[in-house]
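dumping this here before i forget
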Amino acid sequence: MQSSPLLLEEPIRMSSILEPSKPNFFPAMTKIVGTLGPKSRSVDVISRCLEAGMSVARFDFSWGDPEYHQETLENLRAAIKSTKKLCAVMLDTVGPELQVVNKTDHPISLEADTLVVLTPDQNKQATSNLLPLNFSGLSKAVKKGDTIFIGQYLFTGSETTSVWLEVNEVDGEDVTCVIKNSATLPGSLYTLHVSQIHIDLPTLTDKDKEVISTWGAQNNVDFLSLSYTRHAEDVRHAREFLSKLGDLKQTQIFAKIENTEGLTHFDEILREADGIILSRGNLGIDLPPEKVFLFQKAAIYKCNMAGKPAVVTRVVDTMTDNLRPTRAEATDVANAVLDGSDAIVLGAETLRGLYPVETISIVGKICAEAEKVYNQDLYFKKAVKHVGEPMTHLESIASSAVRAAIKVKASVIICFTSSGRAARLIAKYRPTMPVLSVVIPQLKTNQLRWTFTGAFKARQSLIVRGLFPMLADPRHPAESTSATNESILKVALDHGKAFGIIKSHDRVVICQKVGDSSVVKIIELED
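structure:
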C-alpha cells in the first residue's frame, strides 16, 4: 500500500486499533497553538496546557486590552519557568474586521423573516431591529441579494448565536437586511462577515500598528498572525513596519487566509510570508461547503513543497462546551495531519472553553495516531521530485539526512544551526523521528552593546512539525573547526537522554558543519 496516502500494514488487523498507544515524550510531531484568554490565563492552567502539548501561545487582540494580555503573558512566562517547556508567542492582529457593537451587553434576539437595519451610527443602541457597526463603508460595498453573516467571536456557523442576513435595501449609509434564521446574539461584540465582498480597509490598521509597536516590541513576539491577508503587498507592508521596531525584524509573519481575495492571491502571498494560517471559519463562509476540503489540501500541499509551515484552524469547535470532540471533528484533526499540516490552532476551545487542557491533550493524541499512518515514503518522493535537480547544497544535505535516518531507523536527527534554516529544511522532508534543532547563539553588536541572537530562532521552531529546539551554550560554535570537537554533541545527546527520546544502542543521525563542509553522520550509542 505504498502508493496510498495512508501507511497501513497488510493484512490490516482491526483488533490492533484497540491496542493502547505507546507513551511518547513528545505528545505529537504536529504542534498545537493555544489561544490564551479568560479560561486559560492562570499560571496553573497554562502550566497544564504546556504539559499537555501546547508549544505556541496565541494572543488575540480582537478583544481585551494590552494590560490584560500582558498579565496573561507574565503568567505564561512563570509557567514556562516552572515546567521548563519552551513556548513561542503569537500576536494575532484584528485587521479589517467588521464588528457589531452592543453597548448594553444584553442579549439581542433576532427573528427569522423579519428586517434588521445595519447602521454606522454607534451612538444608537443595539436592538432586535437595529445593529450599530464600527464601519461606515458597508452601504457602498454591498448590494441587494448579498449575504452577511454575524456571530460571536469564533462563530461556528451552525450555532444559535450566529445569524445569516440577506441584503434587502441600501438607504444612505444604512443597510436593511432580511433575517434568514432565528438567533440570540449574546455579549457586547460580534464579528460581521460579508461573503465575497472587498472591504476597503487596510490589512494592518492603525490600532494593529499601535499594539505591535508597544506590546509586541516590548515582548519580542515570535510570530505575527496577519489577519485578513489579501495580497502579497500586505505581507511586505507588515515586514517593512516590523523592520523599524528593533528586534521585531526577526519576527516571522504568518499570513492568515480568510476570504476569497486571499485565496485568489495565495501563491504570491506564500512567496512573501514565513507561514500560512488557513482560517477556515471565515473562509468556510466565503467558499461553497463542497470546496473547503479542496482548498485545504491544495494550500497545505503548496506550503509543504515550499518548506513553509501550514497551520489549520477550527477543528474541534464543540469542545468549547464538551469534553469530547464529535466523530467528524476527530476525523478532521487526523485529516489535517495526513494532509501535511504543521500545526493546529485552538481558538474558542482554549480561550473561553470549559476544557482547555483536555482539548489540547485530545487533539495531541489524535495527531500522534494520524502521524503513525502518515506515508512518509510517498511524501518524500513528491518533495524530492518537486525540488528537482540540481538540488542546492543545503537541500541535498537535508534530504540525505532524512533518508539516512529512515534507512538506519534512527531514533532522532540532531541538527546544529545558527539561523534555523538547515533544521527547517530537514523538517520539510517529514522524517518519522523527531528533529532536535540545536540552535547556537551568535554574538552581535550595534556598536553600543553586545547581544546574543538565537532565542528567536529556537522558539520559531516550535510551530514546525517534528522540530524540537534546544538553545545551546553560545561558547560552542555551530561550525566546528575540528571533527573531534564533540563537546556540543555530547550536550545534545545528554539532553535527548534526559528527556527519554534517546536510549542506549539507539542510532542517531547528526547534521552539522565541519569547517567549510556540511556533514551527515550516523552514530550508535553505547551503554
